[in-house]
Every structure is written in C-alpha cells, then in structure tokens.
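In response to the reviewer comment on reproducibility (Comment 2.3), we provide here a single inverse folding case reported in full, input and output, so that an independent group could reproduce the run without further information from us. The structure tokens appear first.
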C-alpha cells in the first residue's frame, strides 16, 4: 500500500513537472512580488506541487514534499472529477520591509485536502496569508 502511494505521488510530481513547463505558474513567471505570488497561489491552490517547489524557499521544500506525499489516488480522482481550477487572486500585499511581505490570497472553489484517508472537500471561499521573502533577487513563499 505504501509503495503504491509513493508511486502515485511520484507520478503526480512527474506529471506536474511535465505539464508545468509552459504553465504560467512556473518559476519563469516573472520576478516581481505580485507575479511570483500569483504563480505560487495558482500552483499551490491547484495542487501543482512540482511548480510550487520552484517558488518557495529551500526551507519550505520539505513541507511541500510532505503535503504532496499525502495525496492519494482517491484525492486525485476527486480533484479530477471537479472540472474547474481554484480561482486565486491577491487580496492585498503588506510590505514589512524591503525583503519581507505578507500576501493575502482570496481563493474561490478550492478543493481542500483533508486528513490522510479523508477525501478532499470543496471550499467555496478561503482567505489565507502567506509570507514571502526576497532572496538573491527573487521573491519566494516561506511556508515555515
């Protein structure tokens, strides 16, 4: 059972990497805070974790991998049964200084993963804040 879950997670990450090559949520989506935040939000709230890894701090990569590793085939089936992507927009950006910002996301129609073994549920509206930091000239989501 454990091997099958890892197989599907690996398949999901590979498919996301292949499908995300020309997707606007890839790390090539621009260098401004707003562009990077939009790319992150689109990838994170639509479960494109291979793209998310390119948009987070190195310290956050393990958290993304942990979230992706908990995705089961049943989760993917439920996500695929729901035809629409989550509608993600930026509701506000609060600059704390030149290298730290808090981005407030407004997300509609989000398929939210639940606890392991429970199917994802549709959340009509979600508002969430994510911290971004500027490193080596790039804005990255800091999920720690």
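Designed residues, in position order:
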């Amino acid at each position: 059972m454990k091997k099958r879950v890892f197989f599907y997670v690996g398949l999901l990450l590979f498919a996301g990497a292949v499908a995300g090559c020309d997707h606007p949520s890839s790390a090539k989506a621009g260098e401004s805070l707003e562009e990077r935040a939009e790319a992150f939000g689109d990838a994170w709230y639509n479960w494109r974790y291979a793209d998310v890894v390119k948009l987070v701090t190195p310290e956050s990569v393990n958290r993304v991998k942990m979230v992706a590793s908990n995705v089961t085939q049943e989760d993917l089936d439920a996500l695929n049964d729901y035809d629409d992507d989550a509608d993600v927009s930026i509701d506000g950006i609060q600059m704390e200084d030149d290298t730290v910002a808090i981005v407030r996301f407004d997300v509609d129609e989000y398929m939210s993963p639940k606890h392991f073994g429970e199917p994802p549920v549709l959340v009509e509206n979600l508002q969430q804040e994510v911290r971004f930091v500027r490193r080596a000239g790039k804005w990255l989501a800091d999920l720690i």
